[in-house]
Design brief:
Number of helices: 2
Strand order of the largest sheet: 3-2-4
Structural class: alpha+beta
Helix content: 40-55%
Largest sheet: 3 strands, antiparallel
Oligomer: single chain
Order of helices and strands: EEEEEHH
Distance between the termini: 19 Å
Radius of gyration: 22 Å
Shape: elongated
Length: about 100
């Protein structure tokens, strides 16, 4: 999947770091206490998507492509009756232009 990004000049409210605790509680870096034991921090570079619309389209295409591979894998490992049912539903969707 290709996504076009561009470097930007961060402003005061831009979140460029994320901090979380081992308990799984996550919060924006600026609200997390620096003294919290075991806290983890991830800093990110200031890049943003150039076009939300293009990124949305690329993501939808990726999902459409991947879901069929995923379903085929699940079906291959499933009971024969379930595999036949999925196959019938998929064929119906293809005949009637239903998006899967």
């Amino acid at each position: 999947m290709k996504v076009t990004v561009r470097r930007f000049v961060p402003e005061f409210d831009d979140k460029l770091a994320y901090k979380w605790l081992p308990s799984g509680i996550a919060r924006p870096y600026r609200f997390a206490s620096v003294e919290e034991p075991g806290a983890q921090k991830l800093e990110i570079s200031p890049y943003a998507m150039v076009s939300i619309e293009e990124t949305t389209l690329a993501l939808r295409e990726y999902i459409d492509m991947s879901v069929l591979m995923y379903l085929n894998d699940v079906i291959d490992k499933s009971e024969p009756v379930l595999a036949q049912t999925f196959n019938i539903v998929y064929q119906f969707a293809q005949k009637h232009s239903v998006s899967c």
